[in-house]
Amino acid sequence: MNTMISSLKHSHSTFTSSDFLPRKRSAVKLQFSPLHIIPNSQKGHNFVPSLTSEKPLHISSVENFSLSAKREQKKPLTVCNAYEADRSRPLDINIELPDKQAAQKIKIGIYFATWWALNVVFNIYNKKVLNAFPYPWLTSTLSLACGSLMMLISWATRVADAPKTDFEFWKTLFPVAVAHTIGHVAATVSMSKVAVSFTHIIKSSEPAFSVLVSRFLLGETFPVPVYLSLAPIIGGCALAAVTELNFNMTGFMGAMISNLAFVFRNIFSKKGMKGNSVSGMNYYACLSMLSLLILTPFAIAMEGPQMWAAGWQNALAQIGPNFIWWVAAQSIFYQLYNQVSYMSLDQISPLTFSIGNTMKRISVIVSSIIIFHTPVQPFNALGAAIAILGTFLYSQAKQ
What we know:
Blueprint: E1 31-32, E2 50-51, E3 57-63, H1 69-74, E4 79-84, H2 100-132, H3 136-156, H4 167-193, H5 196-203, H6 206-216, H7 224-242, H8 249-273, H9 280-302, H10 305-319, H11 322-345, H12 350-372, H13 378-398
Parallel strand pairs: 1-2
Antiparallel strand pairs: 3-4
């Protein structure tokens, strides 16, 4: 660190200043010039110190500093060390500065609360759509298409600044998009076969997948309490699955595949977001567009326009015009909650993101049980509680 050090020395003359002493006494004239280092071992007593007037000085130490002639005779040497205030140690004065850590925690907390609320609304409308229109591949495609359209309009109208990307950015984004597409479709398939609460109970095991992937594929190690916390997570999810009244293997496997895919997405996203100037919101917008391009041909191959047309007409006949609003709502809220989640991921680690994602499921599970009147057995509820408790222990062990 470059510091500005100045030393004042005198032996036979008293150090004076026109600001502090009467004008009758002769003042030492200070010359100002920026010097890197001024040694304090100059010979002679007529040495004139050089100080910088560009920045305030922090006085670090004063030895034998006196304006008295008597004191001057005993110890002729006076040393005053000064450092540039903004390039050395903090000022030792009682000024209350904002706590950046507390502000950061509040910011992340707001992101998490908004993310969870938007996710609850999305899951409710998504399940309503899937109950009336059981075509998860098209439903997933519409969600990505709506989000992509929203962001293109925002960029065109300059509501949001368009990101500056290059080929390398899209190349790095591709594996993230593949993982995101798989996770998104798998979760939608799961919710089309089982209750929303069951899907999210199984998906609460995501921290276990995150630890296992990080340990065996990335070579990361964790404290023993972290591994121990995985036992209640896995055990609770297993108990909930065994006691689920509406158990469906397709729904169960869809939730498990979604867990694994989203862990890879989070890890790849965190790596891809480092070192580029694209914000979390724009990063997810680009991710949605690339995922849409990947998903569309597979959706057509798996279901096809003929099935979609027949299913759409049947849904309109059963639900009426409200069905269109349900589709629009689930697509819009899907985009919004994911954008906020990526704004959170921009601030935290993938593992912390998985923790927040799991805690979010509590509100989703409870709200879906209330709204859809999902029957819950005591052991099923116990399994969900154990899994959530394991997630809490995991978050504590990670601190």
